[in-house]
Amino acid sequence: MPGLRPYDGPWRFTAQADDASVPRLRHEVRDLIRRQATPVSDDVLDSLLLILSELVTNAVRHAALLSPEIGVEVSLGGGLLRVAVEDDHPYRPKALEAEPFLEHTSGRGLLLVKALTDEAGGVCDVEQTGTGGKVIWAALPLTPP
């Protein structure tokens, strides 16, 4: 297709909701972004991969019983690199809505996601899917602020 940039996406992955998927998905996404010559700084890529690891770990730990498979989507557009993790569990975590300075006994991984996203000048959120599950996503600017 004429005019396509080498980094046009989105790219989708699926994986079993188990511990082995965390490093595998992180490496697949890192390799894809490099292979596609995505114009992203090292700092943003490192933050994105840490966010991905936290989101996949969260799905593995909290959603695997109801969602034995998870989905990951990486997309690029509007100067943002976005990663999203989808599972079929209906619970919508509140950590992304919480103030980062509050004490939490769980959800610290999502608070880390929020902090990394905020630091990079990006946005993150949780959305319900049409099938009753959820997608947790973060979008980071291609270049740090």
In short:
By secondary structure, the protein is an alpha+beta fold. It is 34% helix and 26% strand.
Which SSEs are present, and which pair or pack?
Blueprint: E1 11-16, H1 21-35, H2 42-63, E2 69-77, E3 80-87, H3 108-120, E4 123-128, E5 134-141
Antiparallel strand pairs: 1-2, 2-3, 3-5, 4-5
Which keywords apply here?
145 residues, alpha+beta, Heat Shock Protein 90, five-stranded antiparallel beta sheet, 26% strand, ATP binding
General description of the model:
With 145 residues, the chain is of the alpha+beta class. Helices cover 34% and strands 26% of the residues. The chain has three helices and five strands, in the order E-H-H-E-E-H-E-E. Strands 1-2-3-5-4 form a five-stranded antiparallel beta sheet, covered by helices on one side. The longest helix is centred in the middle third of the chain and has 22 residues, at 42-63.
Averaged pLDDT: 86
Tell me the total number of β-strands.
5
By CATH, the topology is Heat Shock Protein 90
Please outline the major beta sheet: 5 strands, antiparallel
The level of helicity is 25-40%
Question: Given the structure, what is the number of helices?
Answer: 3
CATH architecture: 2-Layer Sandwich
CATH class: Alpha Beta
> Structural class of the secondary elements?
alpha+beta
**pLDDT under 50 segments (min length 5)?**
none
The rounded Rg comes to 15 Å
Give the CA-CA distance, first to last residue: 33 Å
- The percent range for strand residues is 25-35%
Strand order, biggest sheet?
A: 1-2-3-5-4
